[in-house]
Amino acid sequence: QIFNQHNAEAPSLEQAFRRMAPMEPNLDHDLSWFLLPSYWAKMVVALISFLCFANSYDGDFVFDDSEAIINNKDLRAETPLGDLWYHDFWGSKLSSNTSHKSYRPLTVLTFRINYLFAGGFYPVGFHVINIILHCTISVLMVDVFSILLGGLQFSNKGRRLNLAPKSSLLAALLFAVHPVHTECVAGIVGRADLLCALFFLLSFLGYCKAFRENKEGHTFSVFWVLVSVVLGAIAMLCKEQGITILGLNAVFDALVINKINLLKLIQKLLYKDKALENAGLLRKGLLFRITLLMCGGASILYIRWRIMGTGPPAFTEVDNPASFADSLFVRAINYNYYYSLNAWLLLCPWWLCFDWSMGCIPLIKSVSDWRIIALAALWFCLIGLICQALCSEDSHKRRILTLGLGFLIIPFLPASNLFFRVGFVVAERVIYLPSIGYCILFTYGFSLLSKQAKKKKILAVAVLGILLINVMRCALRSSQWRSEEQLFRSALSVCPLNAKVHYNVGKNLADKGNQSAAIKYYREAVRLNPKYVHAMNNLGNILKERNELHEAEELLSLAVQIQPDFAAAWMNLGIVQNSLRRFEEAEQSYWTAIKHRKKYPDCYYNLGRLYADLNRHIDALNAWRNATVLKPEHSLAWNNMIILLDNTGNLAQAEAVGREALELIPNDHSLMFSLANVLGKSQKYKESEALFLKAIKANPNAASYHGNLAVLYHRWGNLDLAKKHYEVSLKLDPMAPGTKENYNLLRRKLEQLQKKGS
């Protein structure tokens, strides 16, 4: 549907469009910068944005990628596609009390497609898509900035004109090479921000398309307004910030299409000026279009609310300490300080960190804290810009400053803590969209400086220098995102007070087997945050493995005291108590863990080990059976069932369990070995031999596999083969228990046979 706009009392949209170019100064006029055709400008932006992040293409899965991708069952083919619409970003049910309520089904769908095409968790494909998305967004920015900086005007053929080719190229380059974007591009989880930004920009461009000229004169198309709303909804299904584009479209409509002077409009509203009735807004369609945007936005939010429920996200004090402060003054001061840090990251993106929580930014609790200066500086600049945006006599200046502030502030609102608590202090990823506003303001400031400067080339060289430094910073930062070790260590110098940084460095070292170094970082994490239960749990685990059981018990007991529903700590405490032979306490700890996590196969496995130590064989078998029901691929539980049944003489039952296990896990060599032992005792030598050989093929360096196969041949009468495998077993492990004695017995028997033969 197309609405023609004619108004005798107010200028038509056609007249407004045609007046725009001669009445407003051209931003490019005094700008000392490169002038390229649109096609070449986009090629340059695409190439430079690619160069910034190309070295991240073969990086690993790092940090949050593990939870959002590797451990997310929604990516696997066996999970119904419909589940994506009822789960959060991390694969948890939205109705769960532990859900973060981050509803991004379309982003998860792209992860799932990545996983299916790659045939598994291979990070290259995930990284390549992220790089392509950022390059695409950067190219779209050329068109977006040409509208925001140069206005919206069409040729007689209905083709949109780029009235600011130089400034739009500069702004797009600033966006493309901004180092704060590294987390979104090099971190795979940043796909949410990239997809959101893509549809955010498409929604804006679609809204602009609603005002394209046709033969009957300038009109607006309801169809393209509705398309813009739909694209805004898609952006929100990628990440929550996407909904803010509807508000920005309304701001753009008022400022650019209708050329409203906000200050005068506010004055008329305050004084109930009758002239407001003759403003022609209704007949120019602004109120109608804003009504469409508002209805669309309200519908989107209502549907989202119905899907995710009314419960708030579950965050802890360590995630966002300011939001848990009792004093409203402390909350307000710290929120504003966080805003100033975000602004600083846009201005000087040198100190970047993957996580800014857990003491990285200590709370401001008094006005005597010197950091109050940052708040004052932020609001001094913002108030100055707002005053210029409202009060300037230059309509061109008012428009650009208002649009710059709008794109800077409005997309940031969902992360501002103003409407609801967020799960972070500062997050570089949430600045991806607000950086559009920063680029507008920077470019406009550069044009003003160029206008005043006598040596414009020096100014242009300075800006080129900034771009070059940012490119190098992007390359360096994206290389740090290639592996967890580099990423975590890079944060030590930026946030030395962040307990999570030390925890992650320690965990990375522990995963690589460097327990001594890991202990140092875990202890520092606990020192910085004495309530850091995950650090206590991991440190307790390492101490348990090093047989430092009493300190391990103290740490784990403190962890469950701080967080009584911490199931993993309860299980690990049970393991330590079992090792200390305090069996009743261990059993109680295991059952407490299961109480807090109903589906906990590892805990059932350890409970089974406890019952086996107490000779409670039926209870042990039941516990291990529960473990395999919850996790059919739990090899250790299957093995222990087979071994216990074998040791208690229940060979038929042991064989049945072994065959059941191998059907579920056909390539597990330890299960082949255990079942082969049972079959050998049952005198099923041929089948036992086949399983032993298959196990040895899978794991040829296991001395026990060769030793037990030798015993089978020894019983079977294949003495030469028995001798061969005894020798292989002793070569692999000269101290293998029983193997040397059996080998000596075989040798004596062979010597006796030789004597008889001679």
From TrEMBL:
Q: Please report the stretch or stretches of sequence annotated as the DUF1736 domain.
A: 311-383
Pathway assigned to this chain's UniProt record: Protein modification; protein glycosylation
List where the protein spans the membrane: 31-53, 131-151, 188-208, 220-237, 243-266, 286-305, 372-391, 403-424, 430-449, 458-476
Gene Ontology MF terms: dolichyl-phosphate-mannose-protein mannosyltransferase activity
Say if the entry is tagged with keyword Transferase. Answer: yes
* Record's GO cellular component terms: endoplasmic reticulum; membrane
Keywords, A to Z, come to: Endoplasmic reticulum, Membrane, Repeat, TPR repeat, Transferase, Transmembrane, Transmembrane helix
Spans of the TPR repeats?
499-532, 533-566, 601-634, 703-736
Q: Enzyme group, top EC level?
A: transferase
Tell me where on the tree of life, at the top rank, the source sits. Eukaryota
Membrane topology term: Multi-pass membrane protein
Q: Name its cellular compartments.
A: Endoplasmic reticulum; Membrane
The record, for Pfam families, names: TMTC_DUF1736, TPR_11, TPR_16
Q: What is its EC number?
A: 2.4.1.109
Q: Provide one Gene Ontology biological process annotation.
A: endoplasmic reticulum unfolded protein response
What is the similarity comment for this entry? Belongs to the TMTC family.
The entry's protein name is: dolichyl-phosphate-mannose--protein mannosyltransferase
Organism expressing this protein natively? Zosterops hypoxanthus
